[in-house]
Amino acid sequence: MHSEKRIPVNGVEISYLEAGVADAGAVIFIHGFPFNKLMWTSQLEALGKTFRCIAYDVRGHGQSQASDVEFSIDLFADDLLAFLDALKIKKAVVCGLSMGGYIALNAIQKQPEKFAALLLVDTQCGADTPEGREKRMKTIAFIRKNGLEVYAEESLKNLFAPASFQTRRQAVQFIHQTILQTPAEIICRTLQALANRTERCAYLSTINVPVCVVVGSEDKITPPAVAQKMAAEIPNSTLIVIDKAGHLTNLEEPEVFNKAVIGFVKNIKLQ
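RESULT FIELD:
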């Protein structure tokens, strides 16, 4: 159905999954933190029937190399743009969840001509508040001292809607394992990158491609009010609130999510 591939990008080897129709329009999926490309398996299967679907591991995550360069959302965005070049993709629909949304918003500001459309999923345009930044610094210190077990358990409480712990146990277990399998140092370096990121809200009104903003009705990390505000700033945008989902809408309500994404992407001129 899809095979793992690797390609050199920006001085590191990036791992990705590709599914679907090779000469069709490309849809690129960027995972959240601290996950990897495997969180998009359901989407690759559903959209791969019609489109060329690619999910890649952000530098240092999953099977992609890290290098010693300081992590930043800016660097991750440069990786995305170089990744598109390496695959000879001139224009793509880019779907970013949470951190993936930060990366997509950074990249589209740099090279808007590479974007046919944008899906911003459970994400936001703002930078960390001073309190949010301080919390990340404390988390880094905690992980370096105590490891990932407690951090992983605490993360799950915020990532999923309460009902998902019963209805989507497999997804909860998958995310728990994914966090534990990500090297602690990569998590700490990425937390630093998230803390240092700059806001992109001022840029929203200048985006001139179709945008779909998706959020879970029970998302605690980037609540519906944040998504509504963001969608209101983007000229050509659609807002979709997915009921009974938290911060991981594509895993908690995959059928509803896939239907929404297909409905959006099928109207985009990709080539």
